[in-house]
């Protein structure tokens, strides 16, 4: 009945590397399932000789062209080398979110550790990219244009904090959305069980209500799953653009 | 985003849904408390599983593993494959288009030559027809002319014959009239008149009659 | 509305976390127990306000304050596909 129980990590078999417990858990299983699903979709459905794509191949091509266009439009032409990374990120998050909508499946994107790891990787990559590309000029990033110099001691720390908050807002947004949605579903599902547990006719009748709400919520959650994968990816693209252009 | 807003908008407009949502909210508020107190009694592993530090390393580890695996799978296998398919299709389509253009040009050329040939043939046919018909006319005219000539000749011959006969008849008539006049004169008046004189008189008389 | 609220909350929370965490770290390093925590909190609030200003004011997610006009395609938020014009990058180059 605990709506947060669904987020608990359950080890499947124990793995210890260098004294650290890195057991293969239900979260790891979901990740592996996502790897398998994405790889199958993007590889086995694509037949090189077919001029007219089938359904699955069309889907794979839609994802490919969607992300390709997103990278080109939002990160610029110089960002082409990042395309494989961005599409991997998008497919990984998208499938992780959607897989979480399957009843009983674990949603690894509902864990802050996972989303934060991804966000901090994006953040480090983008920062390194900016430093390598622009050197010391990178620091002008933190001094807004058209601001008097005496305001710099005030604005530069704020800008630095704002910059450093990027990975946090990026990861918290995805994590909070996924967790809130799944908790809400579980809470409403719990209501049904509680009402039916009363055993009265009224209880059974009222138990239908949360089911109806959950049907709507599941549709909503699928939308959120798509949207949050999209937001995470497009922000990555925008950050890459910032690092490349350093306006 | 707009879809979600749209759905939310739709849901908020429907009275039934709104009522249901209100009922659900009341139920939620009343039962969350019960749940919380029940959960408290339950004990168990308190707090968010997300904040349990003992499970963080496994997640990071397997995230890195699976992400890297997926990245290299996509980078090495899937993306080149899709790219190749898209390129092949694009080049095939453009090849098809150029090929179709070629074929169209070719067929246009064939059509033009066919039309040229047709018009030439038509002109030839017209010429032959006109030549044939003029030839026919000419030979008809020739025939007609010959017939005409034949006709006029025979007519003229016939006329000549008639004229000769008529003249002969007339000459005979003169002689007979003269004889008659001589006999009448000798018998009635008992005068012997010169034959040439009578002939002259008969001629005059006949002329006057005619 | 809910998603916007959630988003703005995330923005402010993120900056606050960074500011506070930075302040605590500096305090424990320099031994100035409450000093940098307070500074960090203030800076964190400032950063959060900057984040929200950028998010709502249509400055995109980038650091700094570009012309809102120039970046108007990013106005809504990242969820609306910004159809980056071909000359958008030129503008940024000279800015």
- Series of secondary-structure elements of chain C, N-terminal to C-terminal: HHH
Q: What class, by secondary structure content of chain A?
A: mainly alpha
Distance linking N and C termini of chain A:
52 Å
**How would you classify the quaternary structure?**
heterotrimer
Number of strands of chain A: 4
Total helical elements of chain C: 3
Kindly describe this structure.
The complex is a heterotrimer of chains A (247), B (210) and C (95). Chain A is built from seven helices and four strands. Chain A is mainly alpha-helical and 247 residues long. In chain A, strands 1-4 form a two-stranded antiparallel ribbon. Chain A has a two-stranded antiparallel sheet with strand order 2-3. In chain A, a hairpin with a 2-residue loop joins strand 2 and strand 3 (20-21). Among the domains of chain B are: 1-30, no CATH class; 162-209. In chain B, 90% of the residues lie in helices and 0% in strands. Chain B contains four helices and no strands. Chain C has one domain (10-78). In chain C, 62% of the residues lie in helices and 0% in strands. The two termini of chain C are 33 Å apart. Residues 67-95 of chain C have low confidence and may be disordered. At the B-C interface, loops of B face loops of C.
In short:
The complex is a heterotrimer of chains A (247), B (210) and C (95). Chain A has 247 residues and is mostly helical.
Which helices and strands appear, and what pairs or packs with what?
The complex is a heterotrimer of chains A (247), B (210) and C (95).
Chain A: E1 11-13, E2 16-17, E3 20-21, E4 24-25, H1 26-44, H2 55-75, H3 83-99, H4 112-134, H5 152-197, H6 201-206, H7 208-245
Antiparallel strand pairs in A: 1-4, 2-3
Helix pairs in contact in A: 1-3, 2-3, 2-7, 3-7, 4-5, 4-7, 5-7
Chain B: H1 2-13, H2 15-42, H3 56-189, H4 195-209
Helix pairs in contact in B: 3-4
Chain C: H1 2-30, H2 35-57, H3 88-94
Helix pairs in contact in C: 1-2
What brief labels describe this structure?
heterotrimer, A: 247 residues, mainly alpha, two-stranded antiparallel ribbon, two-stranded antiparallel sheet, 7 helices, 4 strands, 4% strand, globular, B: 210 residues, 90% helix
């Amino acid at each position: 009945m605990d709506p947060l129980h669904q987020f608990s990590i359950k080890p499947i078999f124990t793995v210890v590397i260098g004294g650290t417990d890195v057991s293969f858990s239900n979260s790891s299983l979901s990740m592996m399932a996502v790897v398998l699903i994405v790889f199958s979709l993007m590889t086995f459905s694509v037949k090189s000789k077919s001029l007219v794509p089938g359904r699955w191949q069309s889907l794979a091509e839609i994802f490919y062209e969607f992300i390709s266009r997103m990278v080109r439009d939002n990160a610029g032409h110089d960002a082409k080398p990042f395309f494989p990374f961005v599409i991997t990120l998008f497919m990984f998050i998208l499938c992780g979110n959607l897989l979480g909508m399957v009843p009983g499946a674990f949603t690894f994107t509902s864990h802050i550790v996972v989303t934060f790891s991804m966000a901090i990787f994006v953040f480090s990559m983008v920062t390194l990219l900016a430093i390598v590309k622009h050197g010391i000029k990178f620091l002008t990033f933190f001094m807004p244009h058209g601001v008097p110099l005496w305001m710099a001691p005030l604005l530069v720390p704020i800008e630095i904090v704002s910059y450093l908050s990027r990975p946090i807002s990026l990861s918290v947004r995805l994590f909070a959305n996924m967790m809130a949605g799944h908790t809400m579903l579980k809470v409403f599902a719990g209501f049904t069980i509680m009402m039916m547990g009363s055993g009265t006719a009224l209880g059974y009748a009222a138990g239908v209500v949360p089911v109806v709400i959950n049907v709507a919520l599941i549709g909503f959650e699928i939308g959120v799953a798509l949207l949050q994968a999209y937001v995470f990816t497009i922000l990555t693209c925008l950050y890459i653009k910032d690092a490349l252009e350093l306006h | 985003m707009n879809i979600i807003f749209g759905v939310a908008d739709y849901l908020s407009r429907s009275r039934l849904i709104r009522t249901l949502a209100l009922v659900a909210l009341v139920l939620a508020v009343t039962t969350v408390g019960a749940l919380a107190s029940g959960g408290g009694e339950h004990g168990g592993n308190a707090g968010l599983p997300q904040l349990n530090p003992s499970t963080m390393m496994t997640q990071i580890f397997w995230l890195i593993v699976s992400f890297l695996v997926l990245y290299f799978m996509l980078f090495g296998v899937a993306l080149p494959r899709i790219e190749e398919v898209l390129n092949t299709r694009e080049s095939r389509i453009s090849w098809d288009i150029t090929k179709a253009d070629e074929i169209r040009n070719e067929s246009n050329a064939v059509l033009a030559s066919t039309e040229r040939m047709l018009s030439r043939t038509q002109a030839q046919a017209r010429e032959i027809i006109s030549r044939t018909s003029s030839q026919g006319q000419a030979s008809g005219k020739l025939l007609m002319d010959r017939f005409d000539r034949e006709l006029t000749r025979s007519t003229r011959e016939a006329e000549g014959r008639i004229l000769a006969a008529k003249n002969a008849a007339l000459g005979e008539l003169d002689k007979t009239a003269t004889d008659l006049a001589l006999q009448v004169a000798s018998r009635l008046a008992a005068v012997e008149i010169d034959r040439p004189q009578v002939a002259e008189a008969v001629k005059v008389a006949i002329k006057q009659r005619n | 509305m809910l998603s916007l609220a959630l988003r703005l909350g995330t923005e402010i929370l993120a900056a606050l976390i960074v500011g506070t965490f930075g302040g605590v770290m500096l305090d424990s390093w320099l031994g100035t127990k409450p000093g940098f925590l307070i500074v960090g909190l203030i800076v964190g609030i400032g950063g959060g306000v900057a984040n929200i200003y950028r998010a709502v004011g249509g400055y995109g997610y980038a650091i700094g304050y570009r012309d809102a006009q120039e970046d108007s395609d990013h106005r809504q938020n990242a969820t609306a596909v910004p159809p980056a014009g071909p000359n958008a990058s030129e503008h940024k180059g000279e800015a």
